[in-house]
Specification:
Layout lengths: L3 E10 L11 E4 L10 E5 L4 E5 L10 H5 E6 L6 E5 L9 E6 L2 E10 L8 E11 L4 E7 L9 E6 L3 E6 L2 E7 L9 E4 L4 E5 L4 E6 H6 L24 E4 L4 E5 L10 E5 L2 E5 L5 E6 L4 E7 L8 E6 L3 E6 L2 E7 L4 E7 L7 E6 L3 E9 L16 H20 L13 E11 L9 E2 L2 E2 L2 E10 L4 E9 L3 E3 L3 E3 L8 E10 L9 E9 L5 E9 L6 E4 L7 E7 L6 H4 L1 H4 L9 E6 L4 E6 L5 E6 L5 H18 L7 E2 L6 H44 L9 H48 L3 H11 L11 H14 L6 H9 L13 H15 L8 H4 L4 H4 L24 H7 L6 H23 L8 H20 L4 H18 L4 H21 L9 H9 L7
Helix pairs in contact: 6-8, 7-8, 7-19, 8-9, 8-20, 10-12, 18-19
């Protein structure tokens, strides 16, 4: 038990679950008894107002109940309570209660009770002010030197000072440069207000300066320039604290006539009235509240200071005079005089512990026993010192950022995938195009080496694959116990998956409370997404993989698919994906080549990956150490770019749907407002077909929402297909150049920077930034270019590009540089020293990002979309930019014509043509909606041919036609729905038809 402890004179626990803060406590003769004895007023954030008159009782029964004079439940939270002369026609003290949106002034009166029931106290409302702004704190005083009564000043949360003179509102002023409210106090000696701004400086404003400044009601925003008369509000003086202040106080006793005390987060400041510092005390603890009070020595001030270590400290200026232990952290401290004792310290905690205490000592009769003096064993101390120094040296020598893994984990996670499919299948989709959808069981065994409580298991798998249950809460496990969790995985979409691997993550807390995470990966079988089929004879896309070993029987490599194969020699094998695509693998009888072919480029990825993995396993079992596999090229970039363009076009469509939905929603709300205004009118005006327009707009919104939802589903499918195509391209690149696993990982992270595609950050811009970084760094032609790229800081914000030309050009350039011997490494950046002259150029956008032509002057073999930007000589950058802008605008207009989203505005040239064709299209849309895309394509090609005749270059015309042809094929494959860009009535008609969804 501590000798220096605050002696408990009277205490009370206020409510349960209530909260209190700095302004919730005040003391004073609030009932105007005339005896000069104080009462304790406490308000809580729950709206409870309590008034106490503490006194000691001989018996412990009813101590708090006898001291409680009044307890009232108010409607709003109580932020601050103050006692002062707040009524103009009275010299009596009144109670001011500040709520978030209201200021109330009450009179507290007591009447003598009859018989033995004691006095009765009641609270009467004198006046109140409803505040237009949310209040933060308040202060009071004789503003302007007026004597006899007190005025109030309230600071709002947005920096406005509102002045009230009794029951009338005086004026309001905005504090300049305001961000967050700070403590506020009135200095009666200089008639000024003190506050601490968000700039962490103490500011002083004279009342006269505030009164003649610009009226706050004439300015909505305090940062805008002044528009009316009045002076700009500036502080009289400022003092930089460098930290946020917890509280301010201006003592009113005579011998400390020029002191302003500021309690900071780490320091205590004392300043004169003119802003000059008197002294500063650096605190070695976190303070919670303080209170200056009168000192017996002239020229000094005593302070009570509470901190977060439950201590109550008494300072005389900067000298610590006394320290007492409290049972809680005080948030407010006051000094009061009661009938039986004077100078009682009243303290309040945040959870409602009210304590009246005094400083004193309590003698302790406990004496510590003597400890036998033992001589130190210097040899033992020396050995322990050397051992500790060894530990210190080892700890300072290791520079690892991540902590070292323990030798043995607390949990062991093993995942086993069943070799047989489930019977019956657990798939949500029973069959796709007549093929049953199988499912496979995955078992996870978790074994504990120690006691583990509250562990969770999460299964992560990429769509369109799904599992029957994704999260499991495991039971508490003891030492050596194990838990087995089983779930089924299956295909849950009508398109092939890009990744057959999944992750099992177990999160738990170690016995010491440290959170830990364990992860284990599993691979699902290829038979989950495809079934054996007959080989296809003609296909669009083909890939050839070479090996250095004799031909292998494919039936031995794929035993689960060879049972139903028609080829008994094992030279060909066909895989029928559940989504409809067919992939054929053929082995050459004479050479060591294997051909994979399919009608869809991205569908070959899983088969090629499985083929390469099973080749490695097969020859490792045979003991072949020099097995090599390769791809002779050329890289199928054109086929890959079809997936890129398809994904990008769907992203553009999603953005257009979003804009059109926003536009139609604004129109819908505007019509609703206008209709509501007419319905509310006492003499309603004619609707003027507003109800028809509302119905048509609603039909458009519904049609656009359905089209946008279907476009979102198509975009998810396109991103999975793009991931498959990118994985295949990375695999072919690694086989083509014989890249190491580290280089392949860098390439995969570059081309697949995202696992999910979002509207804010899409694959195109992320991939372009990653490829551009490789071209500037490790794949750069010269060390000078590499140093320039490393010196460059910042860059443009990533966003949806206007087209994919730049991205395809960069990917082609990267493949070409890898093919010419470029090394993929991230370590080369650290070895390049940046020249001084290049460091000076390091500004965002100050360096040309990528050289368009190779450093040795040779031109690259690029696709036709990119060669027109490189091979063609152009006179200047300005001409080049103008031509690119024209081409981009032309392509975007053609894309918008192909999209035909309802409600968008057409170009002026096509508006007349659209009106002529509208009646014709209305008749034809009911007959055959499937012919519409073809007719649109024909009209489009006619428009292109007529516009291209006006151009001089015939080669450019040919390229534009070829490019348009590819765009049509890509749009046919994606099956993109189209909403007709007609009037609102047309959208309404199409909604009623069976093909209304084709939009």
């Amino acid at each position: 038990m501590s000798l220096f402890k605050a002696r408990d004179w009277w205490s009370a626990a206020l409510g349960e679950g209530e909260e209190f803060d700095q302004g919730c406590l005040c003391v004073g003769d609030v009932d105007n008894s005339g005896s000069g004895h104080d009462k304790v007023v406490v308000g809580s954030y729950m709206g409870m107002l309590r008034i106490f008159s503490p006194h000691t009782t001989k018996s412990s029964e009813g101590g708090v109940a006898d001291a409680l004079l009044l307890e009232v439940q108010l409607q709003n939270a109580i932020i601050q309570v103050e006692v002062g002369k707040f009524v103009s026609c009275s010299e009596l003290l009144h109670l001011a209660v500040l709520h978030p949106r209201k200021l109330s002034v009450y009179s507290v009166s007591g009447t003598a009770g009859n018989v033995e029931h004691g006095d009765q106290y009641q609270l009467k409302l004198v006046y109140e002010h409803n505040l237009q702004r949310t209040a933060c704190n308040m202060t009071y005083g004789t503003f302007g030197g007026v004597t006899g009564h007190h005025s109030l000043c309230i600071q709002s949360m947005d920096g406005m000072l509102m002045f009230f003179e009794q029951d009338s509102y005086s004026f309001g002023r905005f504090l300049p440069g305001f961000l967050l409210p700070g403590p506020l106090v009135y200095n009666p000696r200089t008639d000024s207000f003190l506050t601490v701004s968000s700039a962490r400086q103490l500011e002083s404003y004279k009342y006269e300066t505030l009164a003649v400044a610009t009226e706050a009601e004439s300015r909505q925003d305090p940062d805008l320039p002044l528009k009316t008369g009045g002076k700009r509000l500036t502080p009289d003086w400022t003092f930089i604290l460098g930290e946020q202040a917890l509280d301010l106080c201006v003592p009113s006793f005579s011998h400390s006539s020029s002191s302003i005390f500021v309690l900071g987060e780490r320091n205590l400041y004392c300043l004169r009235d003119n802003g000059q510092i008197r002294f500063m005390k650096k605190l070695e603890f976190n303070p919670s509240c303080f209170l200056p009070y009168a000192s017996v020595t002239d020229g000094t001030t005593n302070l009570l200071l509470g901190n977060h270590t439950n201590m109550l400290l008494v300072y005389q200026d900067v000298t610590l005079k006394w320290a007492a232990q409290l049972s809680f952290v005080p948030v407010a401290i006051r000094v009061a005089n009661f009938p039986e004792i004077k100078g009682v310290v009243v303290s309040l905690s945040s959870d409602g512990h009210l304590l009246c205490s005094y400083m004193g000592t309590d003698p302790s009769f406990f004496s510590t026993p003597k400890v036998d003096a033992r001589e130190a064993d210097y040899e033992q101390v020396d050995a322990e010192m050397k051992k500790l120094q060894k530990f210190i040296r080892e700890a300072t020598r290791t520079q690892d950022i991540l902590p070292k893994a323990e030798a043995e984990e607390d949990l062991i996670v093993t995942v086993a995938v069943s070799s047989n499919m489930d019977n019956p299948s657990q798939a949500l989709i029973q069959d796709i195009d007549g093929l049953p959808v199988p499912s496979v069981t995955v078992q996870v065994k978790v074994k504990a080496r120690c006691v583990v409580q509250a562990s969770k298991l999460t299964v992560g798998i990429q769509p369109p694959l799904a599992v029957t249950q994704e999260q499991f809460v495991l039971e508490p496990m003891g030492v050596g116990s194990s838990t087995v969790v089983a779930f089924s995985a299956f295909l849950n979409g009508r398109y092939p998956a890009a990744d057959l691997t999944g992750d099992v993550t177990v999160s738990y807390s170690s016995p010491t409370g440290v959170p830990r995470v364990l992860q284990s990966r599993f691979s699902l079988p290829l038979a989950l997404v495809c079934v054996p089929s007959s080989p296809a004879k003609t296909t669009k896309f083909k890939i050839t993989v070479d090996t250095n070993q004799p031909p292998v029987n494919l039936s031995a490599i794929f035993p689960e698919f060879s049972a139903k194969s028609e080829d008994k020699d094992g030279n060909s094998l066909a895989f029928q994906f559940l989504s409809g695509a067919k992939v054929t693998v053929q082995a050459s009888k004479t050479s060591q080549r294997y051909r994979i072919q399919s009608d869809h480029f991205e569908d070959m990825w899983l088969v090629v990956k499985e083929l390469v993995q099973r080749f490695d396993q097969h020859f490792s079992k045979l003991g072949v150490k020099d097995f090599k596999k390769s791809f002779s090229g050329p890289l199928p970039l054109q086929e890959y770019f079809l997936s890129v363009d398809n994904h990008f076009q769907l992203r553009v469509s999603a953005q257009q749907y979003q804009d059109l939905l926003s536009e139609r929603a604004v129109q819908f709300r505007a019509i609703q407002r206008r209709l509501l205004t007419r319905f509310k009118d006492k003499t309603p005006a004619p609707l003027q077909n507003l109800d028809t327009l509302l119905d048509a707009t609603y039909s458009q919104v519904i049609a656009l929402a359905e089209a946008a939802e279907e476009n979102r589903a198509l975009l998810e499918e396109a991103f999975v297909r793009l991931r498959s195509a990118t994985h295949l391209l990375v695999l072919l690149l690694s086989l083509w150049q014989g890249l190491t696993p580290d280089q392949t990982a860098i390439l995969e992270a570059t081309l697949l920077p995202l696992l999910q595609d979002t509207p804010q950050l899409g694959w195109e811009e992320s991939c372009d930034a990653a490829v551009s970084h490789l071209l500037r760094s490790c794949l750069s032609r010269s060390p000078k270019d590499q140093a320039t790229s490393l010196a460059q800081a910042g860059g443009p914000m990533l966003g949806l590009p206007s087209d994919t030309t730049r991205l395809k050009k960069h990917i082609t350039l990267m493949c070409d540089r890898i093919g010419k011997g470029g090394r993929l490494t991230l370590a080369s950046e650290a070895n390049v020293q940046v020249p001084v002259q290049i460091q000076n150029l390091a500004a965002p956008g100050g360096v040309e990002p990528i050289a368009e032509v190779a450093g040795d002057g040779e031109e690259l073999e690029l696709p036709p979309e990119t060669t027109k930007f490189i091979k063609k000589k152009q006179p200047s950058k300005k001409v080049k930019k103008d031509k690119e802008k024209k081409e981009v605008s032309k392509e975007s207009s053609e894309a918008s014509v192909r999209e035909e989203v309802g409600g968008a505005e057409e170009p002026v040239k096509e508006a007349k043509k659209e009106k002529k064709e509208s009646s014709k299209e209305k008749k034809e849309s009911k007959k055959d909606s499937s012919k519409e895309p073809k007719e649109e394509a024909k009209k489009e090609s006619k428009k292109e041919s007529s516009s291209s005749k006006e151009k001089k270059e015939s080669s450019k015309e040919k390229k534009e036609k070829d490019k348009d042809k590819e765009g049509k094929e890509a749009s046919k494959e994606s099956g993109d729905r189209k909403v007709s860009r007609k009037s609102s009535v047309k959208v309404k008609e199409k909604k009623k038809e069976p093909e209304a969804g084709d939009g």
